[in-house]
Design a protein that fits this description.
This protein is an alpha/beta fold. It contains eleven helices and eight strands.
Amino acid sequence: MQKPRLAWQDILPGFPLPGHSGKPRQTGYTMLLDKRLGLNETRDLLELACDYIDIIKLTFGTSALYPESVLRDKIKLIRLYGVDVYPGGTLFEIAIWQDKLESYLQRAAELGFTGIEVSDGTIPLSAKERRRAIQSAKAHGFKVVTEVGKKDGTPIPVLRMQQIIADDLEYGADKVIIEGRESGKAVGIFDQNGNVKEAEMEALVHGLPCPEAVLIWEAPLKSQQVNLIKRFGPNVNLGNIAPEETLALEALRCGLRGDTLGLCLDHMAANRRQVSGGEVSSGGNIDADF
């Protein structure tokens, strides 16, 4: 599908915050959480914003409630616009619980899904079962994202999370999601108010090879998205984004919203002060991207 001409590109040829990679991309993923979009709403969304969407997740077990013909049409439509589509991790967990993994994968392939989420947010899943699920999904031709974290907020030690991430990638996972739920509160790296627990986040990424490429941070709240873009730059992978927030998030990535435009202006002012004072900028996490 031909990339559309943007309405302002001759007048504003460059965005304040450059660097968000174009599709197909390995970083800068946006994963939408779709709970209820019908065919017309899905088409409207994709026509407007498919360049800014990498994955649409039919979240929880919602895809099991679709009439089959509607689900097939929706999946076909999403794929037509070059976007991956996954069933939610809860549906995978139910398949595991009912000992239906292979049947689940076969059915997902038949329906046209391009990816599978492997998670244990609610059920227990041994390391052996997790490896088998990842490798089976890859054998069926799926892209695989795994998820680390418990939906009830039970903390997992950082070293254990790092080991799970490393194992999942070794077994063939394409990306690893850090659990943030739909609420973004009291789970994963977020406290009960949805604030990022900076020390825990930094401890998690420390020592991980290329965390910007392999991790997807579930971050449904704008404050979380701003924090993660500030820390990792516009190519941070973000998930659990509401469909109606697609353009708002892309605006954050590009400096087209006050929250990140302000960061750009602050950085430019700091550079001018350093140059006028004969200093050399020491850089920082965001400097290379602004």
